[in-house]
Amino acid sequence: MLGILIPQESALAGSGAPFKLPYRAGHAHTITQTPGSGYSHNDGYNRHAVDFAMPQGTPIVASAAGTVYYEGWSTGGGIMALIDHGNNRCSQYAHLSTTIVNRGQWVAQGQHIGASGATGNVTGPHLHWNVVYCDSQLSREIPNTVETGTNYPTGTAPVSQNRLSTGLPGADGERVSDFSGDGAADVLGIAANGDFWYYPHNLSGLSTPVKIGIGWANFKHVMAADWSGDGAADVLGVDSSGRMLYYPNNSYKLSGYTQIGNGWAAFKHVMAADWSGDGAADVL
Description:
By secondary structure, this protein is mainly β. Helix content is 0%, strand content 31%. It has strands at residues 31-33, 50-53, 59-61, 66-74, 78-84, 89-99, 106-107, 112-116, 126-133, 139-141, 187-190, 196-199, 210-213, 221-225, 234-238, 244-247, 258-261, 272-273, 282-283.
C-alpha cells in the first residue's frame, strides 16, 4: 500500500507553535514513524501521528495545557490519555504503561501525565503521539511544536524544550516532595507496620494511595528529595545502623538503594531542602 504524503509547508519550528514535544526538557527520543508512514500511519485515525521509541516507564508530559478528556484503555491504543485544548482538539498519548491524571483534571504544559509502555497493538515500547478530534479520535493535524514545527523525519531524535513552569500555583520549585513530577507536592507516609504509601496530589486533593514499599518500620529518618535532579522526588532514608540510603524514583516505584553516607544514627533530625538554591535537594 502506498503511504499518504502529508504537506510540510509549515515545517519550520517557531516559538509561537502551540505544542512542545511530549517528553521532558533536555531529553531526546528517536522518531520511528512519521506522519503519513505507509506502515501504520496511513488511515483516518493515525495519518498525522508521530511515534517515538523510548524505554518503558519514560515520563510522558503534556504537550500543551488543557483538560484531561479521557484516560484509560482503548482498543489498539492500549492505555491512552487525551488532553482537550479546546475546539474539539485533543493531543493523544497512546501505548502507555500507566497514567497519573484523572478525567476532567486540568494539566499544565510540561506536566507529568503518565509513563510510556507497550500496551495495545505494538511491536515494542514506544509513544504514539497525535492531535485528534476529541469526540471521534480521528486524526486532525500534524502536531506543530516549538522544537520541530511539523517536520518529523524518521530516525531523527529531537530534543524537547517541554519544561513545567515553577511559577504555577502549587509548583514546588525545590522539587523536594513532588513524587509524581507534575509540579505539585505529593505525600509519602510510613504506616506502623512499615508499609510505605504514596498519596498523589491531583491539584484538587489527595488521590487513592499506592503502596510503594515494605519493611520501613525500623528506619530512623525517611525523606523525599529529588536527588537525581530529574524533576521527580526520590527517597532518602537513614536505617537503624546509620547508613543513608538513596532509593531512585522509577515511574512512581522505588528502585534498589545506593548507600550515599554513614554515621547518621545519632542525628535527631534529618531533612531535605534546597539550601544552595540551585533547584536540587540538599540534605540538612
